Recover the amino acids of this structure.
């Protein structure tokens, strides 16, 4: 087909489209849905017994805030990655908050080492933690994975990796409200480790999940075809 | 003076494209057609500069145009259009390069393409003669309508529309006739072997 004929065919089939809202607005919408889900989950399972005391601890509040900011910035970054022409640095926006989150957990490990020596870093297998993060993140993950498909698949791996990071980080923050586990090394390995593992799986699945959906022009068919 | 004039022209052009794209998002066919026609030389120039094989340029340009069409809702009318357009262009050129390199990795380069099978696999004159005779017998076993359809579409190479016009049959009826004829010929050839 001649390119000029292709232009005619594309112009013929153009339909009104709603421009995507700003990435920050979309991220806020997603966060509200995730908060409602987590609130429902905390209400269903019941908050941890010492929740009032924990919320009075600055370290606990900083840890939760860092996880929530990581989630928010990762969601904004994932939506920005699907908008052509936006600056590349936006994709790295969640990492300072991720570093603060990691630092609060590292500081907790160091404090327990100083207080109790090597015994303070006792490490057990806790697969419940992984399952709880999965449960706390699943709806947020499904919603954001649907939302990122509205964008352009310019950087599929970064987009799905950031989206999964956003979902698992908010799940980890919610988990701290109903899962009474305060041993820093356990949180570091099982909660933070689960977040990184799931985000890595999301990153690796990017090329399979996000593909270009191009209009099918020949024969006047209005369907779409997918290309890598 | 010239540089300033050129930069003013470019700014004016970008602003025009931004407005055309905004109209295209609202479903304005004329604005969209004009936008795509105006960006075409820019896309061709960009792909030409970045792609080694000139014969692939038009395919990549078409791919970019279809990509622009499929993600036109991602353009934010409050932002400049060129970064949006050039990001899609760069991405699709990179995708084409990736596809090309994976295709090359699966290809084998040979100096001379073999014209036939090796000696043991090559058919003898007798085999060829036998095959032709079997096909003639299978053709003869068809009804007149089926034989005519096979001769027009499979031996003379007419399209289904051309054959329909020649025979006066409808396209679906002709497709059914050809399908049944091939089935009958296959059965006839299997009986012979």
């Amino acid at each position: 087909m001649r390119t000029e004929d292709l232009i005619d065919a594309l112009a013929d089939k153009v339909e009104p489209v709603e421009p995507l809202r700003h990435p920050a607005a979309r991220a806020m919408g997603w966060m509200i849905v995730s908060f409602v889900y987590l609130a429902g989950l905390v209400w269903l399972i019941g908050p941890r017994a010492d929740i009032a005391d924990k919320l009075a601890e600055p370290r606990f509040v900083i840890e939760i805030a860092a996880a929530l900011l990581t989630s928010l910035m990762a969601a904004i970054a994932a939506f920005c990655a699907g908008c052509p022409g936006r600056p590349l640095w936006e994709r790295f926006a969640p990492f300072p908050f991720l570093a603060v989150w990691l630092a609060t957990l590292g500081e907790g490990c160091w404090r327990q080492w100083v207080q109790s020596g090597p015994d303070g870093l006792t490490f057990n297998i806790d697969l419940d933690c992984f399952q709880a993060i999965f449960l706390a993140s699943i709806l947020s993950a499904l919603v954001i994975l649907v939302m990122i498909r509205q964008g352009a698949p310019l950087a599929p791996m970064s987009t799905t990796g950031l989206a999964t990071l956003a979902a698992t980080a908010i799940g980890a923050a919610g988990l701290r409200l109903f899962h009474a586990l305060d041993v820093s090394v356990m949180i570091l390995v099982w909660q933070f480790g689960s977040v990184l593992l799931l985000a890595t799986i999301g990153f690796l699945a990017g090329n399979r999940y996000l593909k270009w959906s191009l209009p099918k022009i020949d024969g006047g068919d209005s369907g779409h075809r997918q290309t890598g | 003076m010239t540089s300033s004039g050129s930069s003013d022209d470019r700014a004016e052009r970008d602003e025009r494209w931004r407005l055309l794209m905004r109209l295209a998002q609202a479903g304005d066919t004329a604005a969209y057609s004009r936008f795509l026609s105006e960006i075409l030389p820019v896309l061709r120039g960009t792909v030409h500069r970045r792609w080694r094989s000139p014969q692939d340029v038009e395919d990549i340009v078409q791919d970019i145009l279809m990509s622009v069409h499929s993600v036109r809702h991602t353009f934010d009318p409050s932002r400049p259009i060129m970064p949006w357009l050039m990001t899609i262009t760069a991405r699709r050129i990179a995708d084409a390069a990736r596809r090309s390199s994976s295709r090359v990795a699966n290809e084998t380069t040979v100096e001379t393409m073999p014209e036939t099978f090796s000696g043991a696999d090559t058919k003898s004159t007798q085999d060829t003669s036998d095959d032709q005779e079997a096909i003639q017998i299978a053709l003869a076993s068809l009804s007149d309508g089926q034989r005519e359809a096979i001769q027009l579409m499979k031996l003379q190479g007419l399209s289904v529309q051309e054959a329909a016009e020649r025979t006066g049959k409808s396209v679906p009826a002709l497709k059914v006739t050809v399908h049944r004829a091939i089935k009958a010929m296959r059965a006839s050839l299997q009986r012979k072997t």
